[in-house]
Amino acid sequence: MADFIATSPMWVLILIFLMTLAILTRAADVLVDHATHLSQEAGVSDVLVGATVVALGTTLAEIAIAIIAIIQGVTDFSVGNATGSVITNMSIVLGIGALTGTIPVARNNLSRIQLLLTGSLLMIFAACTTLLFGPGHLPRWVGIAFLLMIPGYIYMLIRQNRRDQTKSDTALDHTDETPPVTASAAKSPSKLQHVLWIFGCGILIAISANALVDSSGEIASRIGIDEAIVSATVVALGTSFPEIITAYIAAKNGFGGLAFGNIIGANVMNLLLVNGLTIALSPTTIFLPKVFYLVTFPMLLFVLLLVGWFVIDGQRDEIDRKEGAALVGVYVIYVLAYVFVI
Fold first, then answer.
1. What is the mean pLDDT of residues 239-266?
2. Pairing of strands 103-104, 137-138
3. For residues 74-105, b (16+ Cβ closer than 10 Å) or e, as one string?
C-alpha cells in the first residue's frame, strides 16, 4: 500500500483520502451501534464497553504501527505516534465530542485518568533521568512496567462493572415495571454477532486509518510540509480519526458516556499497550528528540491534568461546550508549538 501511494498522482491520493475517511465514518457508526446494543443487553455500562472493546478496536491502527515499527527498527516513530495520539484524543477528540453533545463524566472515571497520569509521569521521569548520563532515551524497564500495569487496569474495570451491575439490580428490585419484549427485540442480533461486528468494524477502521495516514502524509510531503511536523500532527491525528468519528457520533446520539469511555480506554491502550510493547520489545535503544522534552511531554501532562480538573470540578458532572472549546484550543497550541520548536 505504501509503495502504491508513494507512486500515485495527486488526484489518486486525494481520492484515497476521501474514500478512507468515508469508510472510517461508516465503520465507526456501525461499531458504536453494536457496542451500545451489546452494553444494554449484557447489562454492562457504556463506559466499560467503550473502555475495552471499542477502545481496542479503534486502537488497532497504533498496534499495527507498533508491530511494524518493532520489525523495521523504527520504534521511536511508534512511541511518538502513540504518545501524540493520547494528546490528540484528550484534546481535540474529546473537545469535538463536547462541542457536539453532552459528555457526562462520573467521578469514578478519575481513576483511569490517574492511571494515565501515573504512566505518563513514569515515562517522563525515566526519560529525563537518562539525560543525566547521555542522550535522552526510554529504558526497556519502562515498557515492561507498562505491560505489567495492564492486568491492574482490567481488574479495575471489572470491579467498576460489578458495582454498576449491583446498583442496576438494586434499582430493578424497587420497581414493579417489567419491560415488554417486543418483536424487534426478539429479532435483534445475538451477543456473539454484536461482538463479531465490533471487531470486524475495528479491523476495517484500523486498515482504513493506516491508508488515511499514508495518503495524507504523502500529500503533505508533496506540498512541502516538514516531515517532522507531519509525523507529530498528521500521523497522530490520522490514527486518532476512529476516536474522532466515534466520539462525534456517540455524543450526537446521546451516548456521551460511551464516547468518554472510548477516549479514556483508547488512551490507556496507547500508553500502556502500544508504548509498552514498543519499548519492551524494541531491538534498539529508543532515543528521543529534543521536541519530546520541550513539547510532547509538557503537553501530555497538561492535557491530562486539565481533563482531570474538568472531571472533579463542576456541578453537572459533564464536560460542557466551553470546556470542549478549551480542549480544542489546547490541540491548536500543541500543533503550533511543534511548528515553532521544529
1. 82
2. unpaired
3. ebbbbbbbbbbbbbbbbbbbbbbbbbbbbbbb
Report the Cα 295 to chain-centroid distance in Å: 19
What average pLDDT is seen over the chain?
A: 81
Question: Residue 301: its pLDDT value, please?
Answer: 95
Cross-strand partners of 138: 286
| Cα–Cα distance, 111 to 311 (Å, whole number) | 11
- What pLDDT, on a 0 to 100 scale, did the predictor assign at position 143? 95
- Rounded CA separation 28/307 (Å): 24
Collapsed DSSP state (helix, strand, coil) of residue 75? helix
Residues contacting 1, CB < 8 A, separation 6+: 210, 211, 214
Torsion of CA 238, 152, 276, 332, to 10 degrees: 30
Q: Is 318 helix (H, G, I), strand (E, B) or coil?
A: strand
Element containing residue 129 per DSSP (H, E): helix 110-130
pLDDT value, residue 179: 47
Q: Give the global pTM.
A: 0.77
Task: Identify the pLDDT of residue 193.
Answer: 84
- How many CA atoms, within 13 angstroms, populate the side-chain half-sphere of residue 296? 26
Indicate the residue type of 251: A
Query: Does the pLDDT at position 32 exceed 50?
Result: yes
Structural contact between residues 117 and 266, judged by C-beta atoms closer than 8 angstroms: no
- The number of beta carbons lying within 10 Å of the beta carbon of residue 313 is 8
Q: In angstroms, rounded to a whole number, what is the distance separating the alpha carbons of residues 272 and 280?
A: 11
Give the N- to C-terminal CA distance of the chain in Å, as an integer: 29
Distance CA(65)–CA(60), nearest Å, equals: 8
CA-based angle 301:305:311, to the nearest 5?
150
Segment 216-225 mean pLDDT: 76
Q: How far apart are CA 274 and CA 54, in angstroms?
A: 16
Counting Cα atoms < 13 Å in the Cβ hemisphere of 324 gives: 21
